[in-house]
Amino acid sequence: MEFPSKLIENAVGELSKLPGIGKKTALRLALHLLKAETDTTASLAEALAKMRFEITYCQTCHSISDAEECSICANKLRDHSTVCVVSDIRDVIAIENTAQYQGVYHVLGGVISPIEGVGPSDLTIDSLLARIPDSEIKEVILAISPTMEGDTTAFYLSRKLRDFEGVHISTIARGIPMGGELEYADEITLGRSIVDRQRQVR
Amino acid sequence: MEFPSKLIENAVGELSKLPGIGKKTALRLALHLLKAETDTTASLAEALAKMRFEITYCQTCHSISDAEECSICANKLRDHSTVCVVSDIRDVIAIENTAQYQGVYHVLGGVISPIEGVGPSDLTIDSLLARIPDSEIKEVILAISPTMEGDTTAFYLSRKLRDFEGVHISTIARGIPMGGELEYADEITLGRSIVDRQRQVR
Predict the structure, then answer these.
(1) Counting one residue from A and one from B, how many pairs have CB atoms under 8 Å apart?
(2) Chain A neighbors of B10, CB-CB under 8 A
(3) Distance between CA atoms of A1 and A30, rounded to whole angstroms?
(4) Of the candidates B13, B49, B90, which has its C-beta nearest A31's C-beta?
(5) Where is the signal peptide (chains A, B) (predicted)?
(6) What kind of fold does domain B6-54 have according to CATH?
(7) CA-to-CA distance for B165 and B188, rounded, in angstroms?
(8) Which residues make up the CATH 3.40.1360.10 domain(s) of chain A?
(9) In this complex, do B92 and A49 lie within 8 Å of one another by their Cβ atoms?
């Protein structure tokens, strides 16, 4: 694609480096910014740069934070005896939005993936293991996506966590999602949802 | 959606103002930038701000340009007797990519749309009409998308352009696109493609 201006070519080039944004979408975004007020672009550029350069991570749970300790870890009202282990900050936001969880988190920063060269030492696993002794932690919930890499990570973690006596390990429930149709569910999910069936309380 | 950091909330807010980007995509983009090198964000923010604040428009054809006259208008080898009128800079790029057009352009900056409050005076129509007298222009091609607003704009323009004697007005060919199946074409397109059929050269 040839551009009538070097400036727009650079902007399109940088925008199309973002995931899921190709050259055509990037051009549409660039032309949108050109049509909008200059303020729109200025505040977008500033917000991005500010986020990248000023963001800090919670020293306890490795989630994004504006301070040394994130608002969840600093909250005395939350249940600090339950830690939910997730791979990504997005998962923290997703679980927080359910308003069903009152414990704290631990963000691994990814999953073990030999293909992409991510080993246990690239994740915050050591930090998680160091968090448990001399703490009030009684349960670790493994809330990792059930992919090949996710299951490997969960298996590795449960092996490591077994050494801590008095700490329960659990995983999030697998089964048919709400509104899901039985006949369209894959066999493994359907099979597990029968094995792990829950008795109704009368 | 609740965010663990004001910085990320601002960045997501600004990103989701872009067309076609919702909160979830914006969050994915923001987290991508956080994971990538700081350089990525710095050069993206700089490219966007530079584009918005330093870009100029060609004084002749109103396309994007790095100088007072764009590279197409300044090119002596192009056919300055043919002007292709388009609504948007994107159309210039699209036509240039076909490598089938050797004339010059005129970018209207939109189409007449009473619903969105865009009248003829909001477009560069006066500038187009002022370009024609005392120039070598012999043909004006109306290459405007065949939507309701586009057709209104084309009709308005052809009424105005009729006053100039010796200037031909043409529109881009309508018909079945390459690779298109006859049976799936809409009736208006198919009807026009028969009315405007082209005799083969033996």
Answers:
(1) 173
(2) 47, 50-51
(3) 14
(4) B90
(5) none
(6) Helicase, Ruva Protein; domain 3 (1.10.8)
(7) 32
(8) 57-171
(9) no
In this complex, do B45 and A46 lie within 8 Å of one another by their Cβ atoms? Answer: yes
Q: Residues A85, A128: contact at Cβ < 8 Å?
A: yes
Tell me whether residues B45 and A42 touch, CB distance under 8 A. no
Whether residue B48 and residue A40 make contact (CB cut-off 8 A), yes or no, is: no
Evaluate if residue A12 carries a pLDDT over 80.
yes
In order, the DSSP letters of A114-175 are: TTTTB-GGGTTHHHHHHHSTTS---EEEE---SSHHHHHHHHHHHHHHTTSTT-EEEE---S
Q: What is the residue-wise DSSP string for B53-111?
A: HH-EE-TTT--EESSSS-HHHH-TTSEEEEEEEESSHHHHHHHHHHT---EEEEE-SS-
The rounded distance, in Å, linking the Cα atoms of B50 and B43 is: 10
CATH class of A57-171: alpha beta
CB contact under 8 A, B31 and A71: no
- Token code pair at residue B61: 């054809």
Cα dihedral sign, B38-B41-B45-B50: positive
Q: What is the pLDDT of residues A174-189, one digit of tens each?
A: 888 888 788 888 888 8
ipTM of the complex: 0.76
Q: Where in chain B is the domain with CATH 1.10.8.420?
A: 6-54
